[in-house]
C-alpha cells in the first residue's frame, strides 16, 4: 500500500466521527500543494507541474482559512470574492477531492439518510454529506447562482441553514435579455453590500476592475491554448482536466491562473504535431475510472483535448461598469437558456479543435445532461463527428459501471476513423 493510499484509508476511517476527518482532508490538500511546489514530477511538462501546484493551492487555501472563505458553486461570480481577498471554497471540487479520499460513499449515504433524494446530483450529495459530518469547514457564508442547475440554490440553502451561515443566492432568468442583465446586476449590487457586512471589509470598485482585467488576460491565453491544441499533440490528465475548473471558473481573475495558462500556451506551441486520435469530452469526467485513466492519462495514442466546461466563456469583459459586466456574463452564459445554444457553441468548438471523436457524459442526477444527450449526438453526427454517450457518475464511483464503461469506451476508440 502506498503512503497516499494509507493516508486516504486513515482519513476515511475518521469520517464517521463528526469533524475528525476535517484536519486530515485539510492536511492532504496542503501536503499535495507542498509536494507539487517543491518536488514536482519532472517527467511531465512544466506547465502541467504548475497546474497541479495551483490546483492544490486553490483547494488548500479555503480549507486552511475558512474564516476568509465562502462556499461557491461552479457559476458563482467569484470575481467579487477576489475583490474582497476572500477564498472561494468550490463545492464541486471539494466533492471531487472527497472522492480522491474514497470518502464520497460515506458523504452520499449521510445526505440520503438526512432525507435527500437518491436521484439528486452526486456532487451535491457529497458536498452536503461532507458539510453535515464536519469533514468540510464552516466558512463565512455561501454564494451560488442558479445557472445550469436549479438544485444549486436548494443545496446551498440547505447547507447554510444547517451550518447557520448566510446564503447569498443569485436568481438568473432562463432567457437571456437586457432586462435579465439589469435584474442580475441589481442582485450583484446587493451581494456586494452583504459581503461588506459579513466580512467587515469595504468594497473597492477599482480592485474588481483589476480582477476583471486579469480575467480578460487569462481568457486571451485560454483562446490561444484552444487554437494550439487543434494542431499539437499535448498530454493531458483526467484529474487535471477536472482540476482546471478552479482556474477557468472559481479562480479566474487571479494571477496564478493567468500564469498557468501562459505556461500552457508556451508548452503546447512547443509540442510536436498531433499524431494519435484526439478526443473531446462534454460534461464532467469520472477521473477515477481505470479504463479512462489507462486510455487518456498522459497518453499519446488518444489525446484528451479538453472538457467543454473549461472553454465555456472566452469573451472579454468591459471594465467601465464591472458589476454590470459580470451580470451580462452570467445571463448570457452558454449554459443558460435553451440547450440549442449549447449545441451551437459546441459545433463551433468542433470547427476549431477538429477532434476525431467526442464523449458525452451523462452525470448521475443531472437532468440537463441526460436530456440533451440525444440532441447533441445527432448534431455532432451531422458534422461527421462520432459521439459516444456514456452514463455514469463522476462523484460516486458506486454508480460508475466499470465493466460496461470498459467495453463501450474501447469499442468506440477502436472504431474511430
Portion of residues within helices: 55-70%
Number of strands: 8
**Uncertain spans:** none
Structural class: alpha/beta
The SSE string, one letter per element, is HHHEHEHHHEHEHHHHHEHEHHEHEH
- Radius of gyration from CA coordinates: 20 Å
Largest sheet: 4 strands, parallel
Describe this structure in words.
- The protein has two domains: 3-205, Rossmann fold (3-Layer(aba) Sandwich); 215-414, Rossmann fold.
- It is globular.
- Strand 1, helix 4 (78-83) and strand 2 form a beta-alpha-beta unit.
- It has a four-stranded parallel β-sheet, with helices on both faces. A four-stranded parallel β-sheet has the order 6-5-7-8, sandwiched between helices.
- The termini are far apart.
- It has helices at residues 3-13, 22-38, 46-64, 78-83, 91-100, 104-113, 122-132, 151-163, 178-199, 205-229, 238-243, 245-250, 255-269, 290-296, 322-331, 339-353, 367-382, 402-414, and strands spanning 69-72, 87-90, 141-145, 167-170, 277-282, 302-307, 357-363, 387-392.
- With 417 residues, the chain is of the alpha/beta class.
Outline the secondary-structure elements.
Elements: H1 3-13, H2 22-38, H3 46-64, E1 69-72, H4 78-83, E2 87-90, H5 91-100, H6 104-113, H7 122-132, E3 141-145, H8 151-163, E4 167-170, H9 178-199, H10 205-229, H11 238-243, H12 245-250, H13 255-269, E5 277-282, H14 290-296, E6 302-307, H15 322-331, H16 339-353, E7 357-363, H17 367-382, E8 387-392, H18 402-414
Parallel strand pairs: 1-2, 1-3, 3-4, 5-6, 5-7, 7-8
Helix pairs in contact: 2-3, 3-13, 5-7, 6-7, 7-8, 9-15, 10-13, 16-17
Amino acid at each position: 500500500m502506498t503512503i497516499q493510499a494509507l493516508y486516504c484509508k486513515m482519513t476515511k476511517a475518521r469520517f464517521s466521527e463528526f469533524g475528525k476527518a476535517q484536519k486530515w482532508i485539510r492536511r492532504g490538500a496542503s501536503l499535495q500543494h507542498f509536494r507539487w511546489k517543491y518536488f514536482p514530477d519532472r517527467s511531465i511538462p512544466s506547465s502541467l507541474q504548475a497546474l497541479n501546484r495551483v490546483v492544490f493551492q486553490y483547494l488548500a487555501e479555503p480549507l486552511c482559512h475558512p474564516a476568509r472563505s465562502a462556499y461557491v458553486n461552479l457559476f458563482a461570480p467569484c470575481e467579487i470574492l477576489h475583490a474582497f481577498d476572500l477564498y472561494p471554497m468550490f463545492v464541486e471540487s471539494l466533492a471531487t477531492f472527497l472522492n480522491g479520499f474514497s470518502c464520497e460513499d460515506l458523504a452520499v449515504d449521510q445526505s440520503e439518510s438526512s432525507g435527500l433524494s437518491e436521484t439528486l446530483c452526486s456532487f451535491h450529495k457529497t458536498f452536503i454529506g461532507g458539510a453535515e459530518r464536519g469533514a468540510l469547514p464552516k466558512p463565512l457564508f455561501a454564494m451560488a447562482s442558479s445557472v445550469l442547475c436549479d438544485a444549486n440554490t436548494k443545496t446551498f440553502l440547505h447547507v447554510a441553514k444547517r451550518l447557520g451561515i448566510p446564503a447569498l443566492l443569485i436568481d438568473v432568468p432562463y432567457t437571456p435579455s437586457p432586462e435579465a442583465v439589469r435584474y442580475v446586476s441589481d442582485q450583484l449590487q446587493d451581494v456586494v453590500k452583504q459581503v461588506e457586512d459579513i466580512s467587515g471589509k469595504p468594497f473597492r470598485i477599482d480592485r474588481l476592475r483589476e480582477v476583471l482585467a486579469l480575467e480578460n488576460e487569462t481568457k486571451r491565453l485560454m483562446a490561444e491554448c484552444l487554437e494550439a491544441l487543434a494542431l499539437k499533440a499535448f498530454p493531458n490528465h483526467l484529474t487535471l482536466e477536472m482540476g482546471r475548473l478552479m482556474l477557468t471558473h472559481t479562480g479566474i481573475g487571479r494571477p496564478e491562473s493567468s500564469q498557468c495558462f501562459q505556461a500552457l500556451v508556451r508548452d503546447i506551441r512547443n509540442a510536436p504535431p498531433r499524431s494519435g486520435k484526439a478526443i473531446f469530452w462534454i460534461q464532467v469526467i469520472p477521473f477515477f475510472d481505470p479504463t479512462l485513466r489507462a486510455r487518456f492519462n498522459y497518453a499519446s495514442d488518444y489525446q484528451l483535448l479538453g472538457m467543454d466546461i473549461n472553454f465555456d466563456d472566452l469573451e472579454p469583459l468591459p471594465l467601465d461598469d464591472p458589476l454590470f459586466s459580470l451580470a451580462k456574463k452570467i445571463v448570457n452564459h452558454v449554459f443558460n437558456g435553451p440547450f440549442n445554444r449549447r449545441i451551437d457553441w459546441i459545433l463551433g468548438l468542433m470547427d476549431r479543435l477538429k477532434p476525431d471523436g467526442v464523449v458525452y457524459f451523462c452525470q448521475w442526477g443531472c437532468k440537463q445532461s441526460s436530456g440533451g444527450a440525444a440532441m447533441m449526438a445527432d448534431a455532432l453526427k451531422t458534422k461527421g463527428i462520432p459521439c459516444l454517450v456514456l452514463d455514469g457518475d463522476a462523484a460516486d464511483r458506486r454508480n460508475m459501471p466499470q465493466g460496461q464503461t470498459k467495453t463501450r469506451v474501447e469499442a468506440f476508440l477502436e472504431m474511430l476513423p
